[in-house]
Amino acid sequence: VIVGTPAAFSPPCSEQHLPGYVTGLRDFSSKGAKIIVLSKDNLFANYAWAQKFGVSDKQDQIIFASDTNLKFSKGVGLSTTEFDPLGEVAARYAIVVKDSVITYVAKEKAISEVTVSSAEKVLNEL
Q1: What is residue 5's predicted lDDT score, i.e. its pLDDT?
Q2: Domains and CATH numbers, the chain
Q3: Phi and psi, residue 95, nearest 5°
Q4: Residues of the chain whose pLDDT is less than 50?
């Protein structure tokens, strides 16, 4: 599962989007899923963000990765300039990959929303 987030430590990401993935790690693992959280932030910010959630030692289940130049997010058409002060960032999205096949892609209509990319929705897609 690849989870796109606009900005580490931003309120929607930290308070609405990621908590479900962190508290649901056991559920994702039971379905054989690993989670990659992507943001434009640098690796130091992402490591600190993982520490905030208490998962920096669970890299076998969840990885906080940097997409600093947005090569991945832009490459799959999932970046946005909706939040202008930050410039272009990853959109809020989720991608499910099963056996090297993409089975689910969802991008939120607005980066402040957490519906189609929520942990609950994605877990149901596994």
Answers
A1: 95
A2: 2-125 (3.40.30.10)
A3: -130, 130
A4: none
Q: Which of 32, 46, 44 is nearest to 4 (CA)?
A: 46
pLDDT of residue 82: 82
pTM above 0.90, yes or no: yes
**How big is the chain, counted in residues?**
126
Q: Give pLDDT, residue 103.
A: 97
CA 52, CA 87: separation in Å to the nearest integer? 25
Which one, of 126, 105, 117, 101, lies nearest residue 34 by Cα? 126
Contact, 52 vs 8, CB < 8 A?
no
Q: Rounded to an integer, what distance in angstroms lies between the CA atom of residue 118 and that of residue 121?
A: 5
Q: Among 7, 33, 30, which residue's Cα sits nearest to residue 18?
A: 7
Token readout for 8 is 């580490």
User: Which sequence positions are flagged as catalytic?
Assistant: 13
- How far apart CA 16 and CA 27 sit, in angstroms, is 18
Is the dihedral angle over the CA atoms 89, 124, 28, 13 positive or is it negative? positive
